[in-house]
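Hi! If you just cloned this repository, the fastest way to understand the data is to look at a raw example. We've pasted two of them here, unedited. The first protein comes first, obviously.
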Amino acid sequence: MRLGFVSIYSFRPHVEHNAYLAALARQAGHDVRYLTCDAQLPHCYARALKGTTKFVECPKCIVGGVRSFASGHVCALPRGGVRLDAARAREFAFSSTCTVLRTEPSEQWQSVEFRTLQDSFAAAAARAYEGARAWIDRERLDALICFNGRFEANRGVIEAAGDAGIPFLTVERTWFGDGLQFAINDNCLDLKQLDRLNTRFRDVPLSERQARRVARHLAARFLRRNDKEWRAYNRGAQATPWPAASTGAGPRVLIVPSSRNEVDGHPHWAFGWPQLTDGLDAVLATLGADVRSAVLRCHPNWGERIGLRTGELSERYYGDWARRRGVHLIGSRDRASTFDLIAQADVVVVTGGSAAFEASALGKPVISLTASTYRSAGIAVTAPSADDLDGLARRIELPARERMRGALRYGYTHIYRFSQYVDYVKAVTTTRYRYFDGADPQRIERMLRSGEVEPDDPTAADGTGG
């Protein structure tokens, strides 16, 4: 096969991940070509996020991009390809716009600021699409491999591949660092592959070795030593008693919402609530929970600056709701231990966030108001609309032991089955990696031809107890 590798941005470690995959492809006998930006885009996610100019950002991106590992068959975005219509360009620009502005709730999508930035990203998506179509046709590519696929330029590239009739993979950093994460013919927000693997392995017992491997990751999160995750939160947390006055009317409910700005716009992550706070109201009412016994823990991420923005819009959105309803509010910068709160709660409500992993590991019932990476793993009840609340109290009644077992199985599937090349791509830090010989170079082609991510570790325990 003739494979095209695309790295528009020089984000680390994604450039070297592409270099590793290109080396595997050559090892398997494939012909390899490269596409990069070389300052051809009128605007881009990196510049908007940091507030930098083309003269500051583009030279760094050129030096740190594809050309830092490949000298031959490297092409800057050409011209002369098929043009992208304006409506699709704006669609491809939507996710980058949400993330840069850290929007919440959806009403902000109608603001002048949002529309202006979306228009500038749409021009970049259109330029990337045009260049990618010309490159794909000229190089007669059989398939394409691209970082992320969600940001505006990358989205333009993978949509060009789809329209040209060739399959593509998008590559991302994994949750815990080791290995690589793939989506097939979709961007990094795709849930199909993980849904399939979670469904396949949710009732499959783990061996003692497998259980110990995933337990180490859980322990690292509880001890806040998970320093290879892209972002680790709640460092320096303080022991925290349950802060709301218990009235005895219904369960203690801990609400741990996450930001939506990185997943909004992808159909797998859509929900049916008018607003997610409407979902919170409905869940509390269905559970018979007194709002005075509920706690809303703002995500620590909201207190951090990413680029030019903090998560103040998300914190204001959920904070205003909590104050109106009389729910006890813990701010994003508060050092209260989220894990202590989970341990004392009767029910944990999330919006697709990873707190469900720890909560289920502690045997707690979890309700997610949106889709999630664990929606097919059995560790949470997914309720993306009012229609999904029927029999909610009964559906969350599982023995704590089953929830704990489910958490380990989900964790193992995500970390050691969905993630690929785990034993050969090893994170030293969040951005530094080591690579080892011995990985199967044919797996790339198999994924492209089959349309499926195969389990990195397909083994299971003998018996039924693990």
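Ok, and the second one:
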Amino acid sequence: RPAGPGVVAEHVMAVMGIREDSGAAAFAAESAGGSVSRLVRTLASRRLLLVLDNCEHVVDAVAELVISLLQAAPYVKLMTTSQERLRIPGETIWPVPPLSLPLPDSDTAALQRSSAVQLFAARARSVDPGFVLDAVTTPKVTDICRRLDGLPLALELAATRVRTLGVQELLNRLDDRFRILNSGYRGAPQRQQTLQATIDWSWSLLSPQEQTLLRGLAVHAEGCTLEAVEELCAGTGIRGDEVLDILARLVDRSLVIRVECPSLPRYRLLESVAAYAQRKTHELGETAELARRHLRYYAELAERARPHLHGRDQRRWLQLLDAESANFQRALDEARRTGSAQWALRLANALTWYWFLRGRLGEGCRALATALATEGQAPAAERAEARTWHTGLGMLLGESGAEAGAEQDGDRPERTVGRARAEWFLGFAEWSLGALTAGEQRMNGALADFRALRDAWGVAGGG
């Protein structure tokens, strides 16, 4: 493996046919530094474009060589390809994105115009001449391309399986992508023979801290914010003030994708990179701990957002919660799986007003039902609050038997602001559905609690 700029310079000279035994005095040195000097002297007056490919494994050496060339050879232009930038003056970055993917709900013709779909179809026909991209196969091929993030190598590896599996079975088996995409083309570099080998190559170039951060990112669903990365990496040997720099290096390597959102920038992994990092997490025995941290962070985020949904920053916090819907669902699933009833109830209760404001009553009702069915210990007030919200949302959805849900609380657990607001909402639901007397009584009871608890919003809304 090349280790310094001199060795890289020797490779460049070999490809360009620059002889080291020309006899010129300037070419007499045999050291690594002499190789750089010889290459620079040779190219000093030349006009050419020099392309250096796959520089990521020798990026420091390439950077040193390029600096020397730019200083002494003014007519030489350089283009380098790498998973990370050289970080030198004068460098212009041109990211190479995955192939284009069609927009959701596109018609068949639009799906077939996608460059990712076209590449897959071309490679599939090369191994199966009978393959046809038609109204039946096109949506399935599109789903395969989306699952593989439009990555050309992954699409080519997948297409080789069409003759054996067909597109539907191939799509069904992509959850086990590293076993399925394990047969490349003869003559390709070893690291491009399988999807596993390709990501192994990229992983091997990362520092331990970068690998740790990737494993932390992989626990999220549909990306996360910088704050979430900082929180989940706490206690892993990475200090909070180090996270940004490490994350920036991963973005530079295109292993992490930055996505602009209305609230805050988000960072996500390509699906194949996430699957690989999750396997590494499992191998290291970190899965349970990362999932626990993920659950705790998103439950506390929902609780932190809750008061802002009743204030002047409501719009900003609604947008923030919109972006985290998938993470909230993943956190709730983890709470149910591990019997963490208190965390499940805290998360669901904190999101109730959000679901109501967004008109996502069915989603809220299902989440509350999941939280109430989660095993484990939890305060009676938390359960009562969730049950009351579940009843109110169910009534507004017209679910039969919803009214009975709030009657299980004969002992009236400790009154809290959350419980009082849930009672007020249930009264609102009863009033809205024509049960005027019952609704008024319940809302008046909630108003008394608001006053006792000094809840200004509740007094204003309930009065």
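That's it. A detail worth noticing about the second one: The CA atoms of residues 290 and 340 lie 15 Å apart.
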